[in-house]
Write a structure and sequence with these properties.
Blueprint lengths: L5 E5 L4 E5 L6 H6 L7 E2 L5 E5 L2 E8 L2 E5 L3 H11 L6 H8 L3 H9 L10 H10 L5 H15 L2 E4 L2 E4 L4 H5 L3 H4 L8 H12 L5 H4 L4 H8 L7 H11 L10 H12 L5 H12 L3 H14 L2
The structure holds a DNA duplex (13 and 12 nucleotides).
Length: about 290
DNA sequence: TTGCAGGGGTCAA
DNA sequence: TTGACCCCTGCA
């Protein structure tokens, strides 16, 4: 592979075991706030669904174990989803010239930026506005239960994220049971714009970040923060720097002082972290949130 | 028990 | 630039 790690596939157990993988920790990666649907199990492992596939990921003895995973799915999907072929060693070396960031990276050393599915990511962050994580998760879960497809795994039922056509066909009344409040109309607007092709999420990935951002912000309920999150977590825009209250707090405290405006914070990130802004944001965000 | 503030922002005026 | 906002939770 050329990225330091190697893997073994056990076809009888449908398990991929990855060895010598650095800079990856499931707890850091799945709980750093970039995703809402990876569930932590009692044994500390995580179960998640993407592309209609469900796997369990467990870190053990320095190895990473992917259960319910075919070799084909690993190579063609999960590898990219988990961002395993990005060289985090080099990125971290570049960022570590900054003392604050080095401390944040020591703390959240195992964060990787997932390459999530764009539509799910977009809707999830539309739901996240002016909301707290437990409620965000609850709303998304309910939406998947009502409008996704059921998949059984390990004796439990899981649900896929609904596709844009399904959500686009719904009314606000249909969505009332998920209790998303005023975000309900945003969900419908976003779904209809994607389903109709007015917004082509896959194509946005190839556009310059500013252009893609402006496109996304044509959707109701999508402002600068939601657009940045969607681009960073699902459209491979590593230079996107989502500024939420936590990032505002920590950037003001560590770098710019109390008076810094939102605009100044964005400009600061662009200048200081450049193409690595997104990953820098995740380390800072996780560090700020876990340590208040 | 009840009431109130505030939350991973965004919209509309 | 400034309130209002659905709903939920934590805390007097």
């Amino acid at each position: 592979m050329g990225y330091g790690y190697s893997y073994e596939y056990d076809s009888a157990a449908a398990t991929v075991t990855i060895s010598n993988l650095e800079h990856f920790d499931p707890v850091h990666t799945f709980l750093c706030g970039q995703c809402f649907r990876w569930e932590q199990e009692e044994d500390g492992s995580f179960t998640g669904i993407a592309q209609g596939k469900i796997i369990n990921i467990k870190a053990e003895d320095g190895k990473l174990c992917l259960s319910n995973c075919s070799e084909d799915d690993f190579l063609n999907f999960w590898c990219r989803y988990l961002d395993l072929n990005t060289d985090y060693g080099t990125i971290k070396a570049e960022l570590s010239s900054d003392d604050h960031l080095r401390r944040a990276m020591d703390f959240g050393w195992g964060i990787r930026l997932l390459n999530q599915e764009p539509f799910e990511c977009l809707i999830s962050f539309v739901i996240s506005t002016q909301n707290q994580i437990p409620r965000i998760k609850k709303i998304i879960k309910k939406m998947c239960e009502l409008f996704g497809e059921k998949i059984s795994f390990g004796g439990k039922d899981y649900y896929t994220f609904p596709d844009c056509e399904t959500l686009a066909s719904l009314t606000e009344d249909d969505l009332a049971p998920i209790n998303a409040g005023y975000r309900t109309s945003y969900i419908i607007d976003a779904s209809r714009k994607v389903a109709s092709g007015e917004i082509n999420l896959e194509k946005l990935s190839a556009l310059p970040t500013d252009t893609a951002k402006a496109e996304l912000m044509k959707i109701k309920g999508v402002g600068p923060k939601v657009a940045d999150c969607t681009m960073l977590f699902s459209l491979q825009k590593g230079d996107a720097f989502p500024v939420d209250v936590w990032v505002q707090r920590i950037v003001r405290e560590l770098y710019l002082g109390e008076g810094a405006s939102l605009k100044q914070i964005s400009a600061f990130a662009k200048e200081k972290f450049g193409t690595n802004s997104g990953i820098a944001q995740q380390y800072l965000f996780y560090y700020a949130r876990e340590n208040n």
